[in-house]
Amino acid sequence: MAQQQPHKGQRESAATDEAWVSVIRKMDEAYADLVRYQVQVEEQNTALEEAHSFFDSVQSAMSDVLIACDHEGRIQQVNRAFEELTGRTMSSLLDQPMEHLCSGESRARLIDCLKRVRREPVRDEQISIEGVQGPVPLALNCSPRFNQRGRLVGVVVAGRPVGELQRAFNELNQAHAELKLAQERLIQAEKMASLGRLVAGVAHELNNPISFVYGNMHALQRYTRRLVEYFDLVQSGASREQLRELREKLRLDRVIADLDSLVEGTMEGADRVREIVNDLRQFSSTQRSEKAPFDLVHVVRSALHWIIKESRAGIQVEEELPERLKAVGHSGQIHQVVVNLIQNAADAVAERVQPSLSLTAGQTDTLIWFEVADNGPGIPPENLPHLFDPFFTTKPTGQGTGLGLSISYGIVAEHGGTLSIENRPEGGARARLTLPLGEGGEDNG
After folding, report:
1. Dihedral angle sign, alpha carbons of residues 333, 339, 340, 345
2. Which stretches of sequence are listed as region Disordered (predicted)?
């Protein structure tokens, strides 16, 4: 039996249903797109509001003045700091020419800044704007503002009241002055410590010849009284027998025989005092004086003599020094360096059972050198890189400023030499000083 075909009306109805289904599907897709776009718009609006709120909070928190204007210099926006400084609101300033904020010379300078900023940023240009309580000096920084296509669309001006800059500058100056004063006091303390060691050594050194001279002068004073008594008797016309008896009583023969030795001893003591004074005069030479030749060995022996006399540790000293080493410079400053090196070595061995120091010196073709080695505990490896740092010290509080080696390093560097300290393989430490060979240094030794 043959299958019955759909008639014309049925076919038209089916086509209509399919068309409606397609329309509904398209409408659903369009609605979904609208919902998605709406979500994106809301998210972007939220982000925009957050960004706007963020920038508003940043501008409100700024203590510096901020002004944004268009490419013709008309004000578009200012921050709260500017409103508080000038007493004018954003709405009253909108679209106003920026140069109206100033008068006189400041206006001309601001106009010039707005012209120059088209070519290059403007930094630290000082102008005055009309504030609530009169003109307020500002240090301005101007930068150009471009759109996405790179075209100039405006200028951003940031300014800081010069009064705040001056206050900050004054505070910085005061802090620097206080730091400099503290540094000078510490350096002075180190100099006084060196001077104290020097004075102690000089006191010991002067004591012997002065005591010798003092004792000889007392003896000469007694002998003078005896001679005056004898010559008075001679003037009175006494007999030869009376003069002989008084001569024996006063022991004048012994006095006369002793006079030469007393005078020679007194002269020797006076010469020794003169040598010490000359050394002091030489060692007290300042950096302002001209550099002059000096004998490094003499400086070393003098420093060693004064320090060892002051020390109570019973230090054994081994010397391997040439007769002389000629150097050129400020002998007083080099003496201070040598005193520091020997004193540090003496301090390092103070607690040793058998403390000892070794002093050596010599020269090469280009320099002269001096070394002082000790049998102390040595220097911890972590401290070696910091020995010449200012204020670094391993001594207990109150026993060192930490400036001795730092000052010594600077002195030696100014003389064109080197200063180094290292641990010895056999124990203890070794300090080495080198100086350029002075003119005529080839005659050393």
Report:
1. positive
2. 423-445
User: Can you tell me the distance from the alpha carbon of 322 to that of 76, in angstroms, rounded to the nearest whole number?
Assistant: 85
SS (H, E, C) 199-268: HHHHHHHHHHHHHHHHHHHHHHHHHHHHHHHHHHHHHCCCCHHHHHHHHHHHCHHHHHHHHHHHHHHHHH
Separation of CA 265 from chain center = 52
pLDDT in tens, 348-399: 888 888 899 999 999 998 899 999 999 988 888 888 887 877 666 666 544 5
Using alpha carbons, select from 252, 255, 266 the residue that is nearest to residue 216: 266
C-alpha 293/C-alpha 317 separation (Å) is 27
CB 127 within 8 A of CB 106: yes
**Strand-pair partners of 129:** 136
* pLDDT, position 181: 80
Q: How far is it, in rounded angstroms, from Cα 49 to Cα 238?
A: 132
Q: What is the pLDDT of residues 79-129, one digit of tens each?
A: 888 888 888 888 888 888 888 888 788 888 888 888 888 888 888 888 888
Which pLDDT score, from 0 to 100, does residue 320 have? Answer: 92
Q: Can you tell me the distance from the alpha carbon of 391 to that of 136, in angstroms, rounded to the nearest whole number?
A: 45
Q: CA–CA distance from 96 to each of 7, 49, 91 (Å)? A: 81, 27, 10
Smallest Cα–Cα separation from 440: which of 299, 321, 292? 292
- Among candidate residues 219, 226, 124, 194, the one with its CA nearest the CA of residue 338: 194
CA angle 164, 169, 170 (to 5 degrees): 100
Of 55-59, 216-220, 273-277, which has the strongest mean pLDDT? 216-220
